[in-house]
Amino acid sequence: MIDRIFDPEAFEQRWYQHWEQSGAFRPQRPDAQPFTIVIPPPNVTGSLHIGHALDNTLQDVLIRWHRLQGRDARWIVGTDHAGIATQMVVERQLAETQQPGRTAMGRDAFEAKVWEWKAESGGTITRQLRRLGASCDWQNERFTMDAGFNTAVNKVFVELFRQGLLYRDKRLVNWDPKLKTAISDLEVEYREVDGKLWHFRYPLEDGSGFIAIATTRPETILGDGAVAVHPDDERYRRLVGKRCRLPVVDRLIPIIADPMVESDFGSGAVKITAAHDFNDFAVYQRHPQAGIPLINLMNPDATMADTCPPDYRGLTREAARASVVADFEALGLLDKIEPHRHQVPYGDRSGVVIEPYLTDQWYVNAGELAKDALAAVHDGRTRFVPATWEKTYFNWMENIQPWCVSRQLWWGHRIPAWYGPDGKVFVAETEAEAQAQAGAGVPLTRDEDVLDTWFSSALWPFGTLGWPEQTADLARHYPGDVLVTGFDIIFFWVARMMMQGLHFQGEVPFRTVYCHGLVRDAQGQKMSKSKGNTVDPLGLIEKYGADALRFTLTAMETQGRDIKLNESRIEGYRNFATKLWNAARFAQMNGIAGHPDLLPPAASQPVNRWIIGEVKACATALEQAIAQFRFDAYADAIYRLVWSRFCDWYLELIKPLLADGADAAAAAETRAVAGWTLDQILVMLHPVMPFLTEELWHQLAERGDLILARWVATDALPADAEASADIDWLIGLISEVRSARTEVNVPPSAKLAYAVDGATPETLARLAANAAAIERLARIVPGELAAGGRLAVVHGEATILIPLGDVIDLAAEKARLEKALAACAKERDALAGRLANPGFTEKAKPEAVDKAREDHAARTAEAERLQAALARLG
RNA sequence: GGGCGUUUAGCUCAGCGGUAGAGCAUCUCGUUUACACCGAGAGGGUCGGGGGUUCGAACCCCUCAACGCCCA
Description:
Layout: H1 12-22, E1 34-38, H2 50-68, E2 72-76, E3 78-79, H3 83-96, H4 102-105, H5 107-121, H6 124-132, E4 142-143, H7 147-162, E5 166-176, E6 181-183, E7 188-203, E8 210-215, E9 226-229, E10 243-246, E11 251-257, E12 269-272, H8 278-286, H9 317-330, E13 334-347, E14 355-364, H10 366-378, E15 383-385, H11 389-398, E16 403-404, E17 406-407, E18 417-419, E19 425-427, H12 431-438, E20 445-446, E21 450-451, H13 453-457, H14 460-463, H15 472-477, E22 480-486, H16 490-505, E23 510-516, E24 519-520, H17 537-544, H18 546-556, E25 563-564, H19 567-589, H20 606-627, H21 631-658, H22 664-685, H23 690-700, H24 721-743, E26 752-757, H25 761-769, H26 771-777, E27 780-782, E28 789-795, E29 798-805, H27 810-836, H28 838-843, H29 846-873
Parallel strand pairs: 1-2, 3-4, 9-11, 15-23, 22-23, 24-25, 26-27
Antiparallel strand pairs: 5-6, 5-14, 7-8, 7-13, 9-12, 10-11, 14-16, 17-21, 18-19, 18-20, 26-29, 28-29
Helix pairs in contact: 1-23, 10-11, 10-16, 17-18, 18-19, 18-21, 19-21, 20-21, 20-22, 20-24, 21-22, 21-26, 22-23, 27-29
The structure holds one RNA strand.
């Protein structure tokens, strides 16, 4: 028996274990059409936050829905090694436990520590995904650092190198002095900072005066290689081609003209420090004849290097800045200091100021790979939903820069490149191959660096399927159908999967990219640990059940918007689950059980024919919602069917049919239809609320699992317009009578007699056929039209007259009728006005004109009846 | 500076060319044997401002404003 109390904790984990152990997440369906999703692999360091909960709920809805459709649904799962993040976590842990640090223990020992840590803590997030109900293919779980992935990464690296699409280059990178590694453009965040603008003077070589420059970074003066002015700037035209003397360093540097210089910034002359500024580096490249030196001023930790004058060596950037300013001031060459607000680059992981830094790094020619990735979205091989994200994708892809893929870390895929004694590089998938290239006996040293984490996650859609082996899985599940992810990693990840997928598989990695928004708190603030406004999805699951959280996230997922998560919504959907639980309990108490067939039993009762039509309409709406990725519409349609149709009306309307002494055949039919309907509800709700529905599915009958059941036979279901009209009429009548009763203050419990005026034979028949339901729900029964005050309820062409004798509140009834009349007359007149407009009748669509005529006639008649009722009141 | 998005009931959001919707919240009533995590009923919106197109605009176009995000 279904328990009186709905308690999600009682069955959620039990069902999950059953599904996983029975292989339900990946049923053997070799003949079915595959449906494939690859999970955005969560960081192995991480734990489930609410953003994961959203992302994975949506994926699970899609996977479960397609599984119910009979598809060979497969949700490929795994975790990401997350280079910097994981290395930081483990280093922090070593520090906290007073163990030797990374550099003290050495590379091999440190790597072993990370693997140890992964074995202990790496399962946290995958356990939490199970708690959420994610029906992933755990049997083939992957990790971006496992051996197969390493093979794939090496192969990709080597092939790109051979094709000239990957190369080693010395250029400026975004250098993180805390982590002592290069990072990519995307890992830099610009913050607006209140800084200063220092104005200095450099003496001209010929002693004829000075040239004034302004800078936000005085410490880099030590590396200046030129002063630049705009070619059209009259003030400086005569100085171009001359030289000035760099104070403190005492070096002669040229004055050059370059259109990059903004004449209205500062003095209109800027210093050029080619090794510490991206713009300056570009100037350096444009002026090879000027002989601008590239002076790397700093050590990897951003202290001043031996390339600086002796007094500066070893100072931090900040100390060197103060020192330079003081030295200029002492020389009388400091003009002024102005407050200046500007953008400063920070490392998104370390939070320290990024230093443009000249080093040797490996780069991928992203511009070349982007070509097909752009074309694939332009020609629709991959589409974005919502489509607006295409613009973001295009915009970035069209302006893509070389991708720096090497990282000075220890945790990650080590770069498969070896160097000979002369520095010659040998790129190969294995050391043996590199040795073969170099020649036997040549001593080789492997590149110390590892690859950017996104280099391996770019291979996720095919690396997970066994590539470079040409596996059956790869043939069957690549390309995937849908990628579900947050818009914030379109650049980081989606774009790179597109590039690598197209390049190495010749096909896009997925047909559709569904981008959802961010989950924010109830005030619309971005959630962050530092603000302390994060919500823990596990806590919410414990409080309300996983189903309620899933339903909430699904219902709130409207395309193109962030989600403002309010706990009251979760509570509301927990109530919804309780409502269905109780409805099923009621059904069971009345001998209603699961139905053995996909198709509904034959039905003669209008209420039964009606609910079958409602199921058909709902299923159709749900199918459309999935096709359009309208998760909110999915939740809305099933919520409405369950609560506003099935519970509010169907169950109430069938109570008389199931009562003692009711017609046995009608009762049997009703039990069968009710059972069938409940089954369809469970199937349709299952993708969103898998636990509750599976539990009830088994409570209602002995049978196989719902997770592997079949979707509603939508097309085969009858839609009975006549039954639908009957029941809509009945619902309308009951609602109007209830409303009227309340407005004239008739106690809800009072059972009243009624008579009817102006009814057609059809209406009289409907009143008779539904007498029991009307008595139960409107609390009126046919009777004599006694004298005295009457309540008049106009419904369609008929007026229901309910004599109330002296009890009636005449004033209230008069007010009620007047209000109804006013509303009706207003609509009538608006329609009349429209119909009187020749522009409308001539130009509008004929259907619109016909509808207006019909509505106008109906409103006119209704107004007359209300008028008559008012007249009778006197 | 460039681009994108948002602005509809107290709150969160649907609707995107033919009479303004949902959930929550509010108010009134109610323990009729599934459910008070409930039932019945009610109130509440000149759809950000202005202009235009159209027989007709929350919906299309232009413009302004506010807020948010991304890129430089």
